[in-house]
TrEMBL record:
EC number: 2.6.1.1
Protein name as catalogued: Aspartate aminotransferase
Organism from which the protein derives: Malus baccata
Family annotation (Pfam families): Aminotran_1_2
UniProt keyword Cell membrane, yes or no: no
């Protein structure tokens, strides 16, 4: 009896020490550069602090906003609907309305049932679902990602084990589009490559191709047999007009491309925490679309089984009701107009304080973000000396700029850049 007790104690000791060592090799993950900015801002006791790093809309008082159309949709939903599981493909109604936004209200592609589409966990989830789909069915392929891009794009395709390459996009000297470099990279990429494109309001630069440039890009991608995948996180929020913001996609559709699109309602409806998005893939015919959708659902099943219901109900309620949709269009234009107004105000204030630099790019760029051209060292000075927080690549979230802080922000930027 004593011997057996001793063996149990020895085994317990062995297994106990082994279990203690399972996670010893795990190091803390590096902080997310954007979330880290917000953490530092919140910890700063200064009354003058300004956060222009956050990628979420704020009103002119710097406060988060819930749209009235969302409030009304939630009032209509409350107590009237159950919260049962959605199908793996998500809300059929939400997906239908979302496709109309991207492909057009009277799209022949929708009528012909050529689009495989599923509800996704906002734009991030849509991109990840597509990346896994790409890896599974085109395992030999790679993805070309613009320089720069939203940092999470690299994480998404990396974790899906899709090889990445980059293509020229932003020109630091002009603070505009490096169109020549972009064209060269697309020409030199192996035929049949995948290209990640921002449909509008490029993040982080705010630099979009012109309509004529989009037409040239479409023509070149067609000639090379590349596959264009659009991340459209800002439809309606860029210019204030969802139709205008979908222009790039419509050009590609007119040119006969098969495309993929990731859509999100985080920015344009303020549904950041609801994680409502859609992934769609335009196919050759209805039969192919059915097969592709079934595989997208199969990929979603072990990831998250099925998407959440509440945000999808909000979106489908707004877009499915003409009164609420009209209110949304008015509100999203109001948000876009405030951002555009703050761009003008920032540029005017910089010129007023006598900055010797050109700030035309502030008003030439579009969308939530302004790629200021400031260096990491200049950004560090802004933070250390003026309590102004942004990512070290110089990206200013225009949503954080208000009539109350724009003068202070311009003065600070002038101070750290005047010796450039």
């Amino acid at each position: 009896m004593a011997l057996s007790r001793k063996l149990v104690q020895q085994r317990s000791s062995v297994f106990g020490s082994r279990s203690m060592s399972w996670w010893r090799s795990v190091e803390p993950a590096p902080k997310d550069p954007i979330l880290g900015v917000t953490e530092a801002f919140l910890a700063d006791p200064s009354p003058d602090k300004v956060n222009v790093g956050v990628g979420a809309y704020r009103d002119d008082n710097g406060k988060p906003v819930v749209l009235e159309c969302v409030r009304e949709a939630e009032r209509r939903i409350a107590g009237n609907l159950n919260m049962e599981y959605l199908p793996m493909g998500g809300s059929v109604k939400m997906v239908e309305e979302t496709l109309k936004l991207a492909y057009g209200e009277n799209s022949e592609h929708i009528k012909d049932k050529r689009i495989a589409a599923v509800q996704a966990l906002s734009g991030t989830g849509a991109c990840r679902l597509f990346a896994d789909f790409q890896k599974r069915f085109r395992p030999e392929s790679q993805i070309y990602i613009p320089v720069p891009t939203w940092a999470n794009h690299h994480n998404i395709w990396r974790d899906a084990h899709v090889p990445q390459k980059t293509f020229h996009y932003y020109h630091p000297e002009t603070k505009g589009l490096d169109f020549a470099g972009l064209v060269d990279d697309m020409k030199n990429a192996p035929n049949g490559s995948f290209f990640l494109l921002h449909a509008c309001a490029h993040n982080p630069t705010g630099v979009d191709p012109s309509e004529e440039q989009w037409k040239e890009i479409s023509k070149l991608i067609k000639e090379k047999g590349h596959f264009p995948f659009f991340d459209m996180a800002y439809q309606g929020f860029a210019s204030g007009d969802p139709e205008r913001d979908a222009k790039a996609i419509r050009i590609f559709l007119e040119d006969g491309h098969l495309i993929g699109i990731a859509q999100s309602y985080a920015k344009n409806m303020g549904l950041y925490g609801q994680r409502v998005g859609c992934l769609s893939v335009l196919c050759e015919d209805e039969k192919q679309a059915v097969a592709v959708k079934s595989q997208l659902q199969m990929l979603a099943r072990p990831m998250y089984s099925n998407p959440p219901v509440h945000g999808a109900l909000v979106v489908s309620t707004i877009l499915g009701d003409q009164e609420l949709k009209t209110l949304w269009l008015k509100e999203v234009k109001g948000m876009a107009d405030r951002i555009i107004g703050m761009r003008t105000a920032l540029r005017e204030n910089l010129e007023k304080v006598g900055s010797p630099l050109s700030w035309e790019h502030v008003t030439n760029q579009i969308g939530m973000f302004c790629y200021s051209g400031m260096t990491p060292e200049q950004v560090d000075r802004l933070t250390n000396e003026f309590h102004i927080y942004m990512t070290r690549n110089g990206r200013i979230s225009m949503a954080g700029v208000t009539t109350g802080n724009v003068g202070y922000l311009a003065n600070a930027i002038h101070e750290v850049t005047k010796s450039t």
